Amino acid sequence: MMSDIKKYIEKRKQIDPEFGEEFESGYANFKIGVILAQAREETGMTIEELASRLNWNKSTISQIENNSSDVSISILERYAREVGKKLYLEIR
Q: Mean pLDDT, to the nearest integer, of 4-15?
């Protein structure tokens, strides 16, 4: 059964294509940040430790994990590599 929120989102997407595009883009950015944070946490590494290893501010790590909308691919690759992962991109 679909929640009221999901129903609302689906209805808005149908009547407002721009909303749909913005919603999907925002969700994708949120999802990337969550995946990165999970990868870091799996290693047992704190934000402070990762920031130190990458020579970045911990606010940079936090920003990447909470809103990765304007993060370059090279930064995502460095982050992933430091937590023992590889970055793969897919165009559909």
A: 79
